[in-house]
Description:
alpha+beta, eleven-stranded mixed β-sheet, 3 domains, 23 helices, six-stranded antiparallel β-sheet, globular, 811 residues, 26% helix, protease (chains A, B), Jelly Rolls, Rossmann fold, PepX_N_dom_sf (chains A, B), homodimer, hydrolase (chains A, B)
Amino acid sequence: MKINQFAYVPTSHDKIVQELADIHFLTSRTKKMADPVMLYRQLLLKFFIEKQSLATRVQKVSNLMATPKLNAYEYTTNSDSVTKLAFYNVGLQLLGFEVGLDFELTDPFKAMKEYRIPAAIVDDTLNRNQVIDAWYKLLNTRTKFGQTLIDYLASQGYYHQFFGTDDLKRPLIFNGKSQAVFDTSKLIHDVVYVEAPLDNDHDGKRDLLKAEIIRPADTENGLKVPIVFTESPYDQGTNDKQADALTHDVNQEKITRKQPNNLTYDDIKVDYDNSNLPAPRQVKATSKVAEESFVKTWTYALNDYFLARGFAVVYSSGVGTKDSDGVRTTGTPDETLSATAIIEWLHGDRTAFTNRNDQVGIKAWWSNGSVGMTGRSYLGTLSTAAAMTGVDGLKTAVVEAGISNYYDYYRENGLVVAPGGFQGEDADVLGELTFSREQSAADYLKIKDTWLDQLKKLTNGQDRTTGSYNSFWDNRNLLKNVNIKADMLLVHGLNDWNVKLSHVYNLRQTLKNENITQKLVLHQGQHEYLNNFRSVDFTDMVNLWLTNKLLDVDNQANKILPDVLVQDNAEPETWTTYKDWGGDANVETISLDNGRLTNLNENHVFSDKLPDDLFKEYIANTKKWQKALFTKTHSKLNKHAIKLVSEPLDHDMTVDGQVKITLRATSSADLGLLSVALVDYGNAHRLTAVPQVLSAQKILTGYHWRKDDLKEFLPEKKETAYKKFTDAHMNMQNRTNNYKSDDLKPGQYYDFTMPFQPTFWRLLKGHQLGIIIYATDMDYTIRSNQDISYTIDLGASKIELPLLPTDDNQQ
Amino acid sequence: MKINQFAYVPTSHDKIVQELADIHFLTSRTKKMADPVMLYRQLLLKFFIEKQSLATRVQKVSNLMATPKLNAYEYTTNSDSVTKLAFYNVGLQLLGFEVGLDFELTDPFKAMKEYRIPAAIVDDTLNRNQVIDAWYKLLNTRTKFGQTLIDYLASQGYYHQFFGTDDLKRPLIFNGKSQAVFDTSKLIHDVVYVEAPLDNDHDGKRDLLKAEIIRPADTENGLKVPIVFTESPYDQGTNDKQADALTHDVNQEKITRKQPNNLTYDDIKVDYDNSNLPAPRQVKATSKVAEESFVKTWTYALNDYFLARGFAVVYSSGVGTKDSDGVRTTGTPDETLSATAIIEWLHGDRTAFTNRNDQVGIKAWWSNGSVGMTGRSYLGTLSTAAAMTGVDGLKTAVVEAGISNYYDYYRENGLVVAPGGFQGEDADVLGELTFSREQSAADYLKIKDTWLDQLKKLTNGQDRTTGSYNSFWDNRNLLKNVNIKADMLLVHGLNDWNVKLSHVYNLRQTLKNENITQKLVLHQGQHEYLNNFRSVDFTDMVNLWLTNKLLDVDNQANKILPDVLVQDNAEPETWTTYKDWGGDANVETISLDNGRLTNLNENHVFSDKLPDDLFKEYIANTKKWQKALFTKTHSKLNKHAIKLVSEPLDHDMTVDGQVKITLRATSSADLGLLSVALVDYGNAHRLTAVPQVLSAQKILTGYHWRKDDLKEFLPEKKETAYKKFTDAHMNMQNRTNNYKSDDLKPGQYYDFTMPFQPTFWRLLKGHQLGIIIYATDMDYTIRSNQDISYTIDLGASKIELPLLPTDDNQQ
């Protein structure tokens, strides 16, 4: 168990006194108290909500042990000083740690060191100022259940006891972070229809987009609040069955020879055309009051957390979703404009109506004009897309596992390559999945023909036959036109094989040229949210960030949050800060017939064609295929892959960034594909990429408000012998780039340079690096089982490994 | 998908009109409307919360299709009648079914038949009374997401729109069930300390027990409310690590020869002694206001549902839990009294204090005196235990997977037999697990020595050496002293191998002699709650039940709820009502060398001793052992078991109740054990015993209130070849009963009659019944791997199968 914190703001004693007074832990009376013991007792009694009787609170203080003999109440009535030992014995219990189980009263510091809980004080005895400082630090320390102690206290009603009084600032900032001082039982739920600068269903009217707003009741009394905005195409429902039915059968598709051409980027480049827009609707009247309300099923827990802290939350789903106009386009600027239209309305720059028919305008009069976007996957993608437009009002986006280029989501180097776990999915399938207008029967009747046309366009445009980058994909490349003003907090899982690492890597590289602040968090999960983990204070980091960006509080967020924060793959619950990802690595180039690599099967030729029964077995269960491919001694694929393995490493080696491989290779046919995987060989209890629940419903984000499970990536119970940590795929006719089709002559050698998915991976001393070269990837590529064999000239092939310099790159 | 309903109350037209007026669907104006079409339009518009504008509501009605051509708004403005087709087309959409996906507008009745949704009306066109009746039925029909439509509407704010007015009854009964008309944002949370008639830590003071109360704000204005009470020893925290450390190692324990004796029940019978109680504390003052409040992490979703419906909810944990006095006893009357003391306080018969020290009394002045208990497993056990005392105020208990005799939980016929999944657990381990006083450091310091003594008593008393029933267990037999007044709703999973079926079966048999109403629900789960399933309206059934029992509403609950409701194991989502369980079965007796049974390995002798490596392999993974034991053709255990298999059945056969087997057998030693499993052989997509999430967070139990996942036991994706559906175990020295040790001479034949776990299991036509006879059960018994062989005289052995008569027993 490790309680890491990256969002704590070092604070001066004077400011501490002011902040503790703001949250009522110090009063005019206790501020003057000279006796540290008496002051300490008052702080402890205040910890247990004052609307409870003194007897009750004394009982609760008496339940805590201060020393092996004295309980905390006895201690503060009998001692003449506050020792560091007593302070932290009690402190650990307040943080939820159990005596005898998590720590011993004789030495709390041992446990604190193990759990990474810093003590504020070095002296053995605390004077009154040190009691104040240490108390402040304790309130800002995370509990055993992953929340700061002040957040836990808020969930127990600490702030709620002051709700009736005028004596509570709103918003209230404590250690740079917005506090849970807003009454979530009085949230207001409004629906409005924003008129977007779009007519993507070509009905001659601008598209109205439904937006759902949740805002604090305080806005009714004049408070202007910032907005956390999530654009989720899934939010109004999904067409799961229809999308399943559209999913392509990768076992029937073939790798097809492409006619060689000399396409240049200009041949396929598209400029988004949004001209010929219908005129906006006339605003016939205005209203301050919404006509429609809503109740949500899914909400993002992180957004709910901010609702208790004085942020409004807005959800919208965009063109083609239920109760909105238009059709889905799977990633074109139409979807980006769906998001920016909402932001423009929140910023006062666009019209919304109270309903779809009466043209009664309604303004976001309760907004302070500052918007931050949140969300994962498609939601994060839309945050990135919106940020890239430079839309006014969008101050930041917290992008979790977002796509930065749709081509890289469904294709790779001229090949159809699926997102992990979604073989056969493509842009058309995702369009159908999110076209929730279909769920509204009368509305669907009106749009059905338009939609079926659009679906055909998606299927044709995505072009599964060639897999090449084309105008369709160029229209879905978010990195193409950059006009960004928002600061970016990027979050991605190092085991995310759905939205792969190239998305966040390429986005980050692009943003390096821009005049914004960007931060990056890389965790060990797959495609996961990160807001409820024990080992990292992600929620607090986002709070510090949004409090800075949306409330303009000078809390040093840019300085305090690490530029790059990476969770280690080998040691559980370990997070390290870095200045950069990949940029400071030393590149080591190794020839593939280097003596340090063993060719396990001593082959340089392999055939892609599997016996029919084996092929069927692997289709039915690709885990068997993975096992045969990656296990060093497994023989079933020995003639179908080249397996190169390094000597055991004599020290830890961390791959930092994007590995590249250059293969000199031939195909026996006039078409072909190459795949390469890098594998970490060595028995280890690797981390689960899917988070495990540590404590159900233990995170309380406000007083009688949303609960969440505490989670963590824990070590697997059983050791595993290997793990693939990155891979690369290429159509051999795309050795130049992903849009030009090269010729490929059977038996002729060419050089193929392939970048791997970027990574940050530590191979432990004694482990071995594996380089596995193969063709069809059962998990990702078309499975054609064509009769092609490949030859690799290993001596003319090389790998370029970016390695983290030892011990000198930590921030 | 099947939407079964068992809690609908048939209602006359006059009562329907009254009830619809009560919930404001009919107004003085609409009551008079003669035109069915106009009336229907008004009902549809009212469906979409009236605080929203008319334009918004018209839009929402217009989104529904009434016929393949007309939307519902067009239909009600253009038609001169309400057809059954239009009514149910719209009705299905209101219920959440999608046009084109779930049903077709040309024939909604086909889907309704498939989903088991009854139409209220047979005529093709509805007159105004039929519109009213059909609307009422529709509101009481369950949606695609498992709630009644009126409950869904409540979650959307339907009742909330009347909260400000005086025009809403509280409680409000609709179709016999309490409605969600209470404001959950204003719930009051009180803590009190009930003085129990106990001093089980022998400190000379009666034990104070913490009770946590959640009650509607309306109680402050004089409303008296009924109480849903859950007694959960887990609720204040559990000592997981400490309990793990205490868990017994079943691989080191032996089956031990017991000295033959002639014990009679009188020798081991105990009468609970609660004399020498200290005097009650003096009540020095009284208060109406609690001093302490609380915030919960875990709550039972079913209880939360009732909070929105005007029931108070009380949680308490009993002796030995955090903030209470005493020590845990794992199932003695001390724990029962912990629960009944709370009920007595709720009924006005016992004292509670506002805190632990000041002796200020506080009454449950807001209680109507009627209490119903809920909860699963240990919680359900305590409900049963409390009910058996006849305590005043306890009107009913909804017992999910409760224990009825602790001996049957940890032992079987003189053998140590674990609860499934908890090998090595015993009464001492459960005691340690729930002794949450340990988590309060200062409190634990006071009680530690007492607790360690108590723990020793548990370990000694449970006696893992003999496994016999003794005074320790007699003190933990809930079926021994019966004085019940509460009506009982029993719920159990037919795949529950933790709290096995004998518990609910024996309880039900005992209750048959009592003057109460009892109902039984048997589902296909393991150890599961049943309140969030799509295929059964369990929550509505409990609502009907508690509204009857605790609010004294004459809603015919006793008549309407089936006596026995059983989920079928072979057909998904299928529930059938019966008059009895086991009582109406025809017993078929079969000799074990009957020609209808094939002895697969043609043996009648088997050895229990496994080769060491195989034994270790099975310890590491008991699934491998199960596979070897139950697979018909598997050979590794051929010499370690006798496998008898019937011919394929020529018709479905349902085992209904408790099978018995009599084996004439010898042991090669002077000790031994026998195990028998009954197996359903036949390839089938069997149901998952762990529920799958169908729709996350889709159940909304109130307006902006608790959300729950919709679940179901779905068919497994892959076929399986067999399933064990019941078993039995016996120590051969306990052939007479479970407390007397019989002699056992090596090589001498004796008759051993063993009852199986009761069941309700349908073996399909073509399946085969398997009878597997073995000794050590890796999943349940001590694993001693002793060198003993067993001989069975199959010709002198027989099985007695209680079979459900075909087609004549449904209620």
